[in-house]
Fold:
Amino acid sequence: MDRVVDVAVLANNPSVVDAITAAQRSRKGLDDAAITARVGKIESTWTTPQVNPLIKQVTVVANVRDIAARTGNGAESPQDSRCR
Structure:
């Protein structure tokens, strides 16, 4: 049951949803070989310091959303404003 709850929490996290949506947009029009190459490059960076900017971006977006939700000011995250 704990795993189901964990998955539900992830699925409802706006940062995770945004990351998935962005990944899907970035793959449009690419063939399977290009997608596989991209995935391989990303997977190879997970155990290196190169992943730090990605982690920082996800953390910043999550923090901005949390603050906006708590203050009720409706502020957009940096990623939201770039998508328009």
Q: What stands out?
A: Residues 75-84 have pLDDT under 50 and may be disordered. The two ends are 38 Å apart (CA to CA). The longest helix spans residues 52-71. The chain is about 75% helix and 0% strand.
